[in-house]
Amino acid sequence: MSILTVRQLTALIKDTVENGFPYVWVRGEVTNVSRPASGHVYFSLKDGDALLQAIWFRTDQKEREAFDPLTGEVFEDGPRVSLAATLKNGQQIVCAGRLTVYAPRGSYQLVVELAQDSGEGQLHLALEALKQKLAAKGYFSLERKREMPGHPCRVAVITAPHGAAVRDFLRLSAERGTGCEIHIVPVPVQGDDAPPRIAAALDAENRRGWAEVLVLIRGGGSLQDLWAFNDEAVAEAVFRSRIPVVAGIGHEVDTSIADMVADLRAATPSHAAHLLWPERRWYEQRVDELELSLSEAARRRFAVWDRQVETAGRALAWLSPERSLSRLAERFEGLRQRLALTLPRSLERADARLRPLEAAMHRATDGRSLERRLERIGDLGRRLEEAQSRRLTRAGTALDDAAARLKERGRRALDGLERRLEREEIRLAGLDPLAPLERGYACAMTEDGHFVRSVHDLRPGVSLTVKIRDGEADARVTAVRAKGETS
């Protein structure tokens, strides 16, 4: 058996206590409250004949901010005061914190990080039990949560008709929800009759089927103030809703059961409007981008067609029969000029060579032999001229044949280009959005000049312009039915 020193024993106790109880919840009666100048709060928790020393350091006595750092929404009721400022002897509270051992006195104490009135502590226990029950039933499952519509035009807001929450939501929806219709469904958001009224409103809006999104909002408050949205009946109504639900209960730090079951959770009521509708500038920028993209695509397409027409024109000009005949005529004239220049010189050279031979022949032969030879030479000259004439005739015939072939090729090429241009004209006509009007169809446009493509673009009372082949007419929508619906 080893003998421990006081320091060793205290260290063992400190290690056992602090590691064995890293975070605890304790309920008890406040006594011995002390508030020195340091700002720390010293007190004891009493339960029967048991006493636990506690210290609440000033840095852990947090107050909630007076504004929402996410959206800038100002809380009308101001920040919540920490319980440390109102703690008094005899008060029943629930504390959360860690146990530490103070070696110089050989005592242990609770370092408080959070304290609530005992009534709120009971609510927290009930809230945790309900969370576990609903989680086991799959109410919080991400797989069942539905996506929000891209830009909902019909929104039902279930909340108190007067208050900062509905004012903030309507202010932001006016800035962002362009062309949207919002119905306020008034319900109490606090008190014993609030849960059944909220659940009934959710069910009624589902039966009505008008809204694309249901918004459930309430301003900030204490846990007791927000308790209606931790009710199981409200959670079940949100869960069975066929319409997507957005919940924004309290401030950023508040999370209710309704928030957890909803398809989308907003930090505050005004944040719910932020989530439903992007800024109007985003839509304007998107329209500008689409317009620029369409203009650029049309410009590129017409540039391609211009190049094709220009290329076809150059090809037609090159293959033109007139141009081909002109080139052949120029070539023929060149050959004729060359022949006209070379033939006399050739004859002169031949004559120059014949004259010495003729003289020699006169000397070497009698006159009759010379005459016969001269006749032969004359005959050879005539034959040479005839051969030259036939050669020129064949060349002319060949040129005529070539001209005829080129003319036929040009005609076929021109026919092919004409057919291609006809096909392009047909394609261009098919791209005309108003072409179907010539076949007896009509198209409808909204007052801002957009074509109507879906029943979701319409609602009763909207004015339209109906374009037909020979004019247009003004109309007003009296009813809207989707495909498959009956009147």
Automatic annotation (TrEMBL):
Residues 139-475 form the Exonuclease VII large subunit C-terminal domain. The keyword Nuclease applies. It comes from the Bacteria. One of its GO terms (molecular function) is exodeoxyribonuclease VII activity. It catalyses: Exonucleolytic cleavage in either 5'- to 3'- or 3'- to 5'-direction to yield nucleoside 5'-phosphates. GO terms for biological process: DNA catabolic process. It is found in: Cytoplasm. It is an enzyme of class 3 (hydrolase). One of its GO terms (cellular component) is exodeoxyribonuclease VII complex. Belongs to the XseA family. PANTHER family: EXODEOXYRIBONUCLEASE 7 LARGE SUBUNIT (PTHR30008:SF0). Heterooligomer composed of large and small subunits. This is Exodeoxyribonuclease 7 large subunit. It comes from Candidatus Bilophila faecipullorum. The gene is xseA.
